[in-house]
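Thread: flavin mononucleotide complex, take 2
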Amino acid sequence: MVLYFSATGNTRFIADELAKRTGDDSLNLLKRIREKDFSPIRSDKPFVVCLPVYVCEIPPFIKELILKTPFEGNKNIYFIFTSGGYSGICSSMAKRLARRKGLNYMGSADFKMPRNYIANNAYPELTEEEIRKRIDNSYKLIPEIADLISSGQKLVKRSKHVWLFELVITIPFTPVWTRIRQGVKKFSASDKCIGCRKCANLCPLKVITPDENGRPVWDAKMCAHCMSCIQNCPVEAIDYGDITPPKKRYTFDKYDFRKQKE
Ligand SMILES: Cc1cc2nc3c(=O)[nH]c(=O)nc-3n(C[C@H](O)[C@H](O)[C@H](O)COP(=O)(O)O)c2cc1C
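Output below.
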């Protein structure tokens, strides 16, 4: 069973392609995350958990779901990370998670995809060409990873080595960064908002409560900053302070060559 969470479509793309090529099913974890549904998941084939990297780590809400949900059936687990190029300590966290669940850790693979985080100015926007190149290179890597999974081999060579200094820096850094930088105060919706409630329905942590007109109200101090609301808004009505107005919105769907072929 290929399990995934995806805010802007990168991870869904990789998960769906891996499922197709390994002859397995894929399961979107969004509903389970939103409902805090930790009921067992059963799979006769290996578990393949696909997730986006957040601040060098496995996002806490995905970690919680993996830990609390009994995985029944097959004892092998693979992890697949999509990131903007740096997966930090994810592979080391994944190994630990597998051990805590009593599952065999079969390694991890990194897919460098377009970076979807637009709520700071730390990175220059990617050009259209770079976006397509990243997607194309990831697509080319899928058959190799799928074959290894299908034949029950470990993804050892694809697993990122985590240096001790990375662990030492990342473990204290990430919670501090998250607390300081992931407030919701700067999110707002402009008059362009059509009250469709898409943002609220996609929010993994359910921090958006629509008002009587369906307009989003961020109803918590902090959120995951997954960018789902901002990036998926059909009329681009959502912004984060004065950082996002000039920026292009990204979802994988806009670049999905499979749809264009249909
Ligand atoms: C809150 C947040 C933190 C992120 N941190 C990292 C990071 O540490 N390293 C990195 O390479 N990409 C980082 N990214 C980029 C995403 O991991 C990447 O774009 C991913 O493919 C998005 O997946 P999705 O489209 O399935 O949501 C971050 C994105 C978000 C929203």
